[in-house]
Amino acid sequence: MQIRVINFVTLLILAMLLNGCASAIYSTGKDGDVLRAGIDRAVIIQRFGQPIARGTDKFGHDYEVFRAKGKIAPAKDDVATFQMSEAMTLGLGDIIWTPELIVWSPFLATGDKDVIVLFDKNGKYLYHTVQRAKPWTQQPDTALEPGAAAPSVSEAAGNPKAGGEPKSTSDGGGSTLDP
Fold this sequence. Notes:
Blueprint (H helix, E strand, L loop, with lengths): L1 H17 L2 H6 L14 H8 L4 E4 L5 E8 L6 H13 L4 H17 L2 E8 L5 E8 L20 H5 L22
Antiparallel strand pairs: 1-2, 2-3, 3-4
């Protein structure tokens, strides 16, 4: 009986010490200052450069795909959801999530990323999602010339030199965009 109480107290102390650590690690990343509500499309293009693809999702929102390196800050809605899950588990989720995110973070910081940014009808930021770079967007003959319009995702998917035929820009995580 006494060992159970000691184990429970140890678990409780560990949960209190780690409370909020996972969301703090999860919310890190660069470009969070421009990837937030109300930011104009021109500011995002200035930061990331010309989009490598663009399209319209099934809800009628325009989106553009940008190529970036490093860990990109997650959307504020995603961070809020993560924080709510920490609160709903009374901090016990941090016992699992904190070590997981510590191990996962170096992998998120390496390699190319596709940053998919959704815009409203006025060209203002709505939401973004980040995924590993798709091979079909890395081909040299699909690169955009400065000032050229980006191909839609469906145009890039139909290009055999573009290396594939993605029908959606989701890799299983985050939101799915059906062009």
